[in-house]
Amino acid sequence: MTYPPQNEDVTTVYLKVRPSRRRERCFRLASAALGVLIALFILEVASRIFLYRYAQFIDRLNEEVARQWGGPLTLRDVARTSSNPARVYELWPGARGTFAGQPLEINSGGFRDREWAVEKSPSTVRIAILGDSVAFGWGVPVEKRYSNVLEQLLTHDPPTTGVAYECLNFAVPGYNTVQELATLREVVLRYSPDVVIVNLVDNDDEVPNFIRLRPQWWSLRQSFLVEAIRDRLVGRPLGDTARLLFGGIVQAGGRGHGEHVRGFRPELVPPEYRFLVGWENMVQALHGIHDECTSRGIAAVCVIHYTDLSPLLAAERPTAAENNPMAAWKKAAEDAGFVVCDPAEVLIRYLRQNGAGAKALWLSEKDPHPNEVGHRLIAQALAQTLKPLLAPTNSVRVSSNGGNAASH
């Protein structure tokens, strides 16, 4: 054992062997930083566990609410992840309640319609409707939306005697044209329609209401603790953060419209879903729908929807292309080969005869979805377009075995 020299006391020896103040300060800072990192790591793990279980809880709750509650429902309440990536989401089969102020019942196929047999009866003409919230009948009773009114018009004044007419509604709120093509391929074609009607609106080239996200449980690219704080700061619910971790469907936009959107997260549109948006993708989907139909002898019809009729109502020549805000969409449908039903003339005539403004056909002062009168007028315009197609001498006829065929 070594002892300090006789001329040095203990204090002097301690001062020689103790760490420098700088080293001591660095050690303390490193220890504190390590403690903070460990705490943040624990919080991150805890956040992911919580968000994972919260997402599972939300899914179970959504199914229970949609199927059993029977009370007021939102679109998020009745939407679930679709197994088809191109459709992204679909409606809960069996959901029931009230939606947009009207009774809602979703059939076993996941659509707001009565139950339909897949097999078509002989001497029946089936008309399938593809679309979004407009064709869905947002805010109007199911019997008052244009697909149901169209069936009534064709039944009471049939283009061909001895033929029954069925209008099957496959519209889902928030769908765009790409999703409608996927619905046609996955669902509609097996019902053997003779006519397919596509409801074309001015947002059919935009992102749908919901986007499907991949699970990111083990992702090291982002902190879900930070995501949770960030989402809350921009007004997004914690459930959306949980969905980002768990995967599934989440709203791609914020609240509001245009420049007034709050909480918009463009990065929530994953690269694998960019095919859903853009004018070129919409046009390609229109061609796809037309080709799928005509290759099977199905008549392809496109009905143009006007969100705001004010420009046409103010124009001297409302049907002129230069005055038509939907001219580009109409031309896209015509170029794809559709028979186009443009209800503008019928709608403008009604408004002028009644001395009404464009909002007279809106669901409310702030909701531009068509009201019951608007749906009735659209159905009348469609009936005018369809009757020549459904006449015995034209391209659509019913085959003897209950399928569809085309005369050329």
UniProtKB/TrEMBL annotation:
The chain crosses the membrane at residues 26-51. It comes from Sumerlaea chitinivorans. It comes from the Bacteria. One of its GO terms (molecular function) is phosphatidylcholine lysophospholipase activity. This is SGNH hydrolase-type esterase domain-containing protein. PANTHER family: SGNH HYDROLASE-TYPE ESTERASE DOMAIN-CONTAINING PROTEIN, THIOESTERASE 1/PROTEASE 1/LYSOPHOSPHOLIPASE L1. Residues 129-377 form the SGNH hydrolase-type esterase domain. Keywords: Membrane, Transmembrane, Transmembrane helix.
